[in-house]
């Protein structure tokens, strides 16, 4: 064989291997075992659920590329609508119609107090205990879900808190609590931040409403990875069954 023929044979074998690999990859992608998917998430969900979901996906789908994009819930809804993200991990309310969704977490709110605060000695508190203290509230746009949730909690209890500051991020709120600036209500997942110098206590309320997180997608999204990751998300959330409709999922 001439040198040119040897080079041609080498290249031909390489091309055949690439073709075979491409065919295998195409089959894996069609089965939802390979490919890429874009996932939006809220900052708070990164404290517990999102890392657990990503770790589970990496174990079960090692050839899948997951692109994570942190953004507030309202921005996630816009990006879902435009197709920029395939999955949103976001807070309600969720528009009905073109979206599918199911709940993945529902966590109680805990009182955050400086460890030296008199109320920190109690095993549990009442909402009224917090209303008389300087209260660090959530910012009404960037943290709208938690802002509106707390407004409703205090309103139903006929309480008007003494708002000291309005902040968007829970770690910033906890830093202010740690500094003795005030007290706050934070979701249970905030325990994972392990702030020293403060305590988290259960709060007794006549009207209870947990902080909810939903797994959301467009019903017309044909990414083969979507139902696979949806199944992993359901298992992780302790839910069983097939993909539910919006009417059955959001209560």
Walkthrough of the structure:
- Helix 2 packs across helix 7 (225-236).
- This protein has helices at residues 3-30, 49-60, 73-82, 127-131, 144-156, 170-178, 225-236, 246-249; strands spanning 35-41, 64-70, 87-90, 99-107, 109-114, 125-126, 134-138, 162-167, 184-187, 198-204, 211-218.
- It folds into 3 domains: 1-30; 36-105 and 217-249, D-Maltodextrin-Binding Protein, domain 2; 109-204, D-Maltodextrin-Binding Protein, domain 2, CATH 3.40.190.10.
- The longest helix is centred in the first third of the chain and has 28 residues, at 3-30.
- The protein is elongated, with a radius of gyration of 24 Å.
- By secondary structure, it is α/β, with parallel strands linked by helices.
Keywords:
251 residues, alpha/beta, D-Maltodextrin-Binding Protein, domain 2, 3 domains, 5-stranded mixed β-sheet, 8 helices, elongated, disordered C terminus
Mean pLDDT: 86
The main sheet orders its strands as 2-1-3-11-4
Number of DSSP-assigned strands: 11
Count the helices. How many?
8
Say which CATH homologous superfamily of the largest domain is assigned: Periplasmic binding protein-like II
Distance between the termini: 73 Å
Number of domains: 3
Helix and strand element order: HEHEHEEEEHEHEHEEEHH
Radius of gyration: 24 Å
Question: Segments where pLDDT lies below 50 for 5+ residues?
Answer: 20-32, 239-251
Biggest beta sheet summary: 5 strands, mixed
The gross shape turns out to be elongated
Strand content: 25-35%
Describe the oligomeric state of these chains in a short phrase.
single chain
- Protein structure class: alpha/beta
Q: Bin the helical content.
A: 25-40%
The top-level CATH class of the largest domain is: Alpha Beta
Quote the CATH topology of the largest domain.
Answer: D-Maltodextrin-Binding Protein, domain 2
């Amino acid at each position: 064989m001439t040198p040119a023929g040897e080079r041609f044979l080498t290249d031909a074998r390489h091309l055949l291997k690439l073709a075979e690999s491409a065919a295998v990859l195409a089959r894996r992608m069609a089965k939802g075992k390979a490919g890429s998917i874009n996932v939006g998430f809220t900052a708070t969900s990164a404290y517990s659920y999102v890392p657990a979901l990503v770790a589970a996906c990496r174990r079960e789908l090692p050839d899948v590329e997951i692109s994570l994009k942190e953004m507030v819930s309202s921005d996630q809804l816009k990006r879902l609508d435009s197709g920029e993200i395939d999955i949103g991990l976001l807070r309600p309310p969720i528009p009905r119609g073109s979206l599918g969704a199911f709940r993945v977490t529902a966590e109680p709110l805990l009182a955050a107090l400086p460890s030296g605060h008199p109320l920190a000695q109690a095993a549990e508190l009442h909402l009224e205990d917090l209303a008389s203290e300087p209260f660090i509230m959530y910012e009404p746009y960037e943290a709208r879900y938690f802002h509106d949730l707390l407004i409703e909690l205090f309103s139903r209890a006929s309480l008007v808190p003494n708002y000291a500051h309005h902040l968007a991020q829970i770690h910033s709120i906890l830093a202010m609590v740690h500094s003795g600036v005030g007290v706050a209500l934070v979701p249970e997942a905030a325990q994972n931040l392990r702030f020293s110098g403060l305590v988290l206590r259960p709060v007794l309320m006549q009207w209870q409403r947990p902080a909810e997180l939903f797994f959301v997608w467009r019903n017309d999204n044909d990414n083969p990875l979507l139902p696979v990751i949806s199944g992993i998300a359901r298992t992780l959330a302790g839910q069983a069954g097939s993909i539910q409709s919006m009417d059955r999922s959001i209560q």
